[in-house]
Amino acid sequence: MGWDVNRALGPWHPPPLALAVHDRDMVQWFFQNGAEPDARCDLDLTPLSVAVEVGQFEGVKLMMGESRRIRSGQLLHHAVRREAPNCDQVVEYIIEHGADVDEVMYQHDIQSYLQQEAFGLGTPLHEAAKLGKLDVIELLGRFSANPLIEDSLGMTPIQAAEAMNHSDACGLLQKLAERAKPPEVQFTATMKQLYRPDV
């Protein structure tokens, strides 16, 4: 029996390819030995999720070339959390590959959503608002991100920015909100009605 290179390291820890995202040669070695960038743990977290958040951009591109599922791993949310100066470039790269700017985190993975909803799951715009990333907010706005979508705690990105005292982000989000339309359906409200009707 051989070692399963795509086996998760733990319930919330993706397969070992995630440990190699800083080393392009090691990433290539993993691929040569059958690793998949979309392989996940119990939570919808993949090696590619880790790469877009903390890995080298060239490594991200290499792994994206092997990826089969843009919706796996909550890539855009993790890209927004990126601390490197090229965060906006990685965010735009992920969007250009088909990521939905208005998707609530774990929207297409109900098990993960229900496990994490108490932490305030929202859209990539919520992530940028919490972090006060003005350049990313502007970028998401250019791709028509909706600032009126609520997170799993019922907060909009503006409220999320206010909670973190990011006044500049609040001002920018308010400008986006002036030309936005409320979504026809609030995913998070629907989930609460279905799974938490007594809360």
From TrEMBL:
InterPro entries hit by this protein: Ankyrin_rpt, Ankyrin_rpt-contain_sf
Record-linked SUPFAM superfamilies: Ankyrin repeat (SSF48403)
Q: Return the protein name.
A: Uncharacterized protein
Phylogenetic placement of the source organism: Eukaryota, Fungi, Dikarya, Ascomycota, Pezizomycotina
Pfam family membership, one: Ank
Which keywords does UniProt give here? ANK repeat, Repeat
Task: Spell out the Gene3D superfamilies in the cross-references.
Answer: Ankyrin repeat-containing domain
Q: Would you say which domain of life the source belongs to?
A: Eukaryota
PANTHER family noted in UniProt: ANKYRIN REPEAT AND PROTEIN KINASE DOMAIN-CONTAINING PROTEIN (PTHR24198), ANKYRIN REPEAT-CONTAINING PROTEIN-RELATED (PTHR24198:SF165)
Asked if the keyword Zinc belongs to this entry, the reply reads no
- This chain's source organism reads Hortaea werneckii
Q: Where are the ANK repeats?
A: 123-152
